[in-house]
Write a structure and sequence with these properties.
Layout: E1 9-11, E2 17-20, H1 26-33, H2 36-41, H3 51-68, E3 73-77, E4 83-90, E5 97-104, H4 113-129, E6 133-139, H5 143-151, E7 155-166, E8 169-179
Parallel strand pairs: 5-6
Antiparallel strand pairs: 1-2, 2-3, 3-4, 4-5, 6-8, 7-8
Helix pairs in contact: 1-3
Length: 180
């Protein structure tokens, strides 16, 4: 992690790092998040995804950083420092636990990137923030995301029936947890 102002950085591997979300990421957010597959597999990403949506999220990330004194939403960046995905935590106000969420641009799927990101981010959260419990909810049909969590050490804790409502349909969610 870099300690320079506005240079927050978590090294994931020799190709990928995490950093703060920047206003200059807006075009990449719109390009990558305006995708039906990403929409289908996530709860809070709208479709179509617009510049206004990107601006709102960049503002939410900045507010959360100010509130907590450190980033809680991160940009996943490739070796050219370009935004290729996002990850972060909700519920840090509980102190000992939080929920992780993530997405990755479709051109980068199937390369093991998200597993490395989730492992690195959870290790960071355990060490730096002293989190004891990190949870994740995954739609029961999203097998790829469930595998990311399983390969990252998360354990399946149960199926939550009709937990979410999206597009007028009730969706089941699998609850995973990483407990230290």
């Amino acid at each position: 992690m870099s300690n320079e102002p506005n240079q927050f950085r978590i090294e994931v591997n020799d190709r990928i790092h995490l950093s703060e979300i920047r206003p200059t990421d807006k075009a990449a957010f719109v390009e990558y998040l305006d995708d039906e597959d990403i929409y289908r597999n996530t709860l809070r990403i709208p479709h179509p995804y617009t510049e206004d949506d990107a601006e709102k999220f960049i503002g939410i990330a900045a507010e959360a950083t100010a509130k907590h004194g450190h980033p809680v939403h991160f940009a996943i960046r490739g070796d050219g420092d370009e935004l290729i995905g996002g990850c972060g935590f909700d519920g840090l106000s509980y102190g000992h636990r939080a929920e992780i969420g993530y997405w990755l641009a479709k051109p980068y799927w199937g390369q093991g990137i998200m597993t490395d990101v989730v492992r690195s981010l959870c290790e960071f959260a355990h060490n730096e923030w002293k989190l004891v419990r990190i949870t994740a909810h995954v739609f029961d049909f999203n097998r790829a995301s469930a595998r990311v969590l399983e390969k990252s050490g998360f354990e399946f804790e149960g199926l939550l029936r009709k937990l979410h409502k999206k597009d007028g349909q009730f969706l089941n969610s699998k609850l995973y947890a990483l407990v230290k």
